Amino acid sequence: MTSKYSIQEFIRQLRSLSRPQFTLEGVHEFLKGHPIDPNSLKEYLFFRKSHYTRNLIDKSDLYEVLSICWETGQKSQIHNHRGQNCWMAVPLGRLLVQNYRIVGGMDGTEHCELAESTRYWMDPSNPGKVEPQEPIHSVANPPELNQRAVSIHVYSFPYDACRVYFPEQKRSLEVPLHYSSKYGALEPEERQD
């Protein structure tokens, strides 16, 4: 059994990766070999009943690391990462990733038709990655699990908007992204709930 790393040690070792090591497989292997101790995340955990939260832990020109806090039953919209690589670890709980493929229209335009593709579970022993050939997905903490979950996301490169998909309407649109907290401090709009 691999020992667990504090988030501080995880970040320290992630920072030591060179650009050539920051590949889809390279960072996925790093996540597999560096499971995070959930007790070290306390200052980056902010839960909201109304929505999952995005909490910035570390950022450079190469990547950003976020903790995403999920109450029972919360899920993301169907989205992409604008061509950026994404890796996900789940130090606490379990999360379901549902991938989608385009079956009509064109990505990056308003008209876009989707169909469900592969799905997989993430948990402390099984990190995930977004496959570049099928980058559209959603993440969910299903209500039947009846527990909170926390995921750690590594994005390369940092980005501030993504495309959100509405399958029933066969359309998509670009939306800005916001942090709920930065480096352990809540952003002003998140202070009241």
Query: Can you identify the CATH superfamily?
Result: Jelly Rolls
Strand content: 35-45%
Q: Secondary-structure element order, as H and E?
A: HHEEEEEEEEEEEEE
The biggest beta sheet is recorded as: 7 strands, mixed
Domain module count: 1
Structure description:
The protein has 193 residues and is mainly beta. It has one domain (7-178): Jelly Rolls (Sandwich). The chain has two helices and 13 strands; from the N terminus they run H-H-E-E-E-E-E-E-E-E-E-E-E-E-E. The strands form three sheets. A seven-stranded mixed beta sheet has the order 7-4-9-2-1-12-13, with helices on one face. Strand 10 (161-166) and strand 11 form a beta hairpin. The chain is globular and about 45 Å long.
Write the layout of secondary structure elements.
Elements: H1 7-15, H2 24-33, E1 53-59, E2 64-70, E3 78-79, E4 85-92, E5 95-105, E6 112-122, E7 128-129, E8 136-140, E9 149-156, E10 161-166, E11 171-176, E12 181-182, E13 185-186
Parallel strand pairs: 1-12
Antiparallel strand pairs: 1-2, 2-9, 3-10, 4-7, 4-9, 5-6, 5-8, 10-11, 12-13
Give a brief description.
The protein has helices at about 5-15, 25-35; strands at about 55-60, 65-70, 80, 85-90, 95-105, 110-120, 130, 135-140, 150-155, 160-165, 170-175, 180, 185. By secondary structure, it is mostly beta strands.
